[in-house]
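Before relying on records like the one below, remember that each one covers exactly one chain. Contacts with other chains, cofactors or solvent are not represented anywhere in the record.
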Amino acid sequence: MEPFAFQLPSRIVYGSGGFKEAGALAAELGKKALIVTHGSARGKLLADRLTAILSDAGVESAVFSGVVPNPTTESVNAGAEAAKSFGADMIVGLGGGSALDSAKAVAIGATHPGEAWDYRLWQKPIDSAKVPPIFAITTTSGTGAEITAVSVVTRTDEHCKFALVDKSLHPRIALVDPELTLSVPAHVTAATGFDAYCHAFECTINKARNDYVDAQALFAMRLVVDNLEKAIASPDDLPAREALALANTVAGVCIANVGVTLPHGIGMAIGGSAPRVAHGEALAIIYPEIARITWREAIPQYAAAARQMNPELVGVPDAEAAERAADGFSRFLNRIDLRIGLADKGVARETLAVIAKDAFGLPDYGSHPVVLDEPAVLELLNACYAVSG
């Protein structure tokens, strides 16, 4: 067995119906909570419920409902101002990855000079002692943001999407109540579920992988493969939702300890140039093609993935199974109605060169089993422009 280190700063509270415990949990962290959420009808409904729950526990709260998909510097800055005006001593993220990433960035922006964007990728040091406690309540099963120490923000005027990274961004408490995911639309369920799968899988091929995380990642991958189609077909299937919520959280634990690889770097770059493309959609667009150019460098891992998606490959030699992983991804994505190309999302072909360049703004590419250069990534993006099968 290879040596490894494992750490999990966040306290995970998992279970259906757990939302009602949010007040008691928040009371452990402070007295004044800014709830960071979406302004949708669903976001407002959950925020109203949470406000009442917090009040019953003696926690005063205010709501910032300006979260947008692929959080922008503008929305984060507005949230930071709301936190300062209210005098919040904790930040509660309520929603999917956008809300949780926004909450983390708001916690930086409210307590540091300048704006949160100034602290992206260690441009300026984050003073961890100043960051208020973050309480993450996830309402989707895909981003893992309730566990990680990362917040992803987009600067729209520069078409840039980068991450803030600091140990203080690990939420103190991660509340995972699968019942909160029952109303998530089918397409969002598919995109977030595939994102969770990719988190787990990329930990197994990451150059920093270890046996302990591999075991958790394979478990999370299996949960997604076995349950994502069920949740899409029957949105009120609570056992399937519970399995996906667990998969998401376990995969988040994996990336918090190992990290993602090239697909996530490219996916982030796609989101920076085309914010309308959800992160899970970006991963779905590129995953089959990346498998085609990577499987030879990670045969056991791609073979394991292929066999999960196609049990007929059990007993087939590893190399043969791994080679068929790309086809397995394509078939799986077809089944969840997520086999799409960049053209399907309205991404202009002339944007691909910018995306290829931006894919190297994050360190993820260096952890991939095969390190590509910019021309190779551009070639990959062109291959992903239209669906071929």
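The chain has two domains: 11-181, 186-383.
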